[in-house]
Automatic annotation (TrEMBL):
Pyridoxal 5'-phosphate (PLP)-binding protein, which is involved in PLP homeostasis. This is Pyridoxal phosphate homeostasis protein. It comes from Thermomonospora echinospora. GO terms for molecular function: pyridoxal phosphate binding. It comes from the Bacteria.
Length: 233
């Protein structure tokens, strides 16, 4: 094993232990939870090592970085999750390699992703990103009141499949009330679309609270891969 593989294996064991403890505390089965390794800023070689350690789901947040990485790792049959804010003009590119897009927050993006999926001959699973931040210019997402309509639009769009909902907890606030709100929005979406069961919530800092509130998908970067250098744009 390389030193990096040792490090990733230890980090993964630590995250799996946290998930197991959070599930035990919440009376949930860890098998209900998909761990997504968010590999942004880290090289394709790390994705390959994580795949060797049993990771099946990978997340990225920028098309420029994700597209070549997904191509380099095409032999690994991973599930690729696009978790970052997505510009409409990048939707077609993302539809060519992503399996799941977590950040669908407006109708124009739904239209663009549907066109991209049809063009690529693929089916794209879409989650509606819910804004849990009252402050404007927060971390993206549709207002909770707009979520049912967006969910209906995704479900009715060719090439798209409605997977559920996603949110990022507001910065610098207790994540528990935000995740509780997300659980309500998720239940409303499920009432109209019973197959849309995904609740993507929880990052390195708040995975316990997310599991307690019913998260099915955890998006974990730092706790698995280590600290990220600041992204210079
Ligand atoms: C980077 C990122 C994550 C992972 O964050 P960590 O705190 O490093 O675990 C999760 N979700 C989204 C949307 C991200 O951009």
């Amino acid at each position: 094993m390389s030193a990096r593989e040792d490090e990733l294996a230890a980090n993964l064991a630590g995250v799996r232990a946290r998930v197991a403890a959070a599930c035990a505390a919440a009376g949930r089965d860890p098998a209900e939870i998909t761990l997504i390794a968010v590999t942004k800023t880290f090289p394709a070689s790390d994705v390959r090592l994580l795949a060797g350690l049993g990771i099946t789901d990978v997340g990225e947040n920028r098309d420029q970085e994700a597209a070549p990485k997904a191509a380099e790792c095409a032999d690994l049959s991973l599930t690729w999750h696009f978790v970052g804010q997505l510009q409409t003009n990048k939707a077609r590119a993302v539809a060519a390699y992503a399996d799941v897009v977590h950040s669908v927050d407006r109708s124009r993006l739904v239209t663009a992703l549907s066109a991209g999926a049809l063009r690529a001959g693929r089916t794209l699973r879409c989650l509606v990103q819910v804004s849990l931040d009252e402050r404007p210019g927060g971390r993206g997402g549709a207002a909770p009141g707009q979520v049912p309509e967006l969910a209906d639009l995704i479900a009715a769009s060719e090439g798209l499949e409605l997977g559920g909902v996603m949110a990022v907890a507001p910065l610098g606030a207790d994540p528990a009330p935000a995740f509780a709100r997300l659980a309500e929005v998720a239940a409303a979406v499920r009432a109209a679309h019973p197959a849309a069961t995904a609740v993507s919530a929880g990052m390195s800092e708040d995975l316990e609270q997310a599991v307690a509130c019913g998260a099915t998908h955890l998006r974990i970067g730092t706790a698995l891969l280590g600290g990220r250098d600041a992204i210079v744009r």
